[in-house]
Design brief:
By secondary structure, the chain is mainly α. About 80% of the residues lie in helices and about 0% in strands.
């Protein structure tokens, strides 16, 4: 495991990130290969390997904002699933990665990733983490236009939240209600009203 952790640190672009624009350019040129390493190691059962991958991911996102954007939807479900890891060593870099993602991308970019993340989580605790992150994102980012460019995705998101309003898990139920209110208040009130009318 120690060897895997070390090789992960070597293979992932820690030193390249520290080299500035030239190093970042090298990462971008091999971005697909770099992302394959993350997909391979984020779910690793050994906490040190997962920690190495998550810590590096948090450093990579701001430096490679544009190329990483097309991977957000596939990566976030893995990050949310590790957020409920029994080890703080894994949970902490997960939180840092999510914080970085939230600062780097607007809600229009994040919506497809949130929808997929909510869909893929089996644990109520992980579902709750996705919804709480979404609430923070809706509160932080207002839509840039009158109607969201992701109105179809937003309807799917609201449709995923609706059954959770009746969930037996009280925290999950409250979070789902809060999230619908948050979408209405901060993001797209028309979409929420239209969705309610269509039920």
């Amino acid at each position: 495991t120690e060897i895997y952790t070390l090789s992960l640190h070597d293979a992932l672009p820690i030193s390249l990130l520290q080299q500035g624009p030239r190093g970042i350019q090298e990462i971008v040129q091999s971005f697909e290969k770099v992302m394959k390493l993350f997909f391979q190691h984020l779910d690793d059962p050994h906490h040190k390997v997962a920690q190495a991958a998550l810590s590096t991911l948090a450093d990579l996102i701001p430096a490679c904002r544009k190329p990483f954007e097309s991977y957000v939807e596939r990566i976030l479900p893995h990050v949310f699933s590790r957020l409920i890891d029994p080890k703080e060593l894994v949970r902490q870099p997960c939180s840092s990665t999510l914080e970085t993602v939230g600062k780097t991308y607007g809600i229009d970019s994040l919506l497809p990733a949130l929808l997929r993340s909510l869909d893929e989580q089996r644990s109520p605790k992980a579902k709750l983490a996705v919804i709480e992150f979404a609430i923070g994102s809706f509160n932080k980012h207002a839509s840039n236009t009158e109607g969201s460019g992701n109105s179809g995705i937003l309807k799917l998101w609201l449709a995923k939240l609706t059954p959770l309003v009746h969930d037996k898990n009280t925290k999950l139920k409250e979070a789902a209600i809060t999230c619908i209110i948050s979408v209405y208040t901060h993001f797209d009130s028309v979409a929420v009203l239209n969705f309610i009318l269509s039920l």
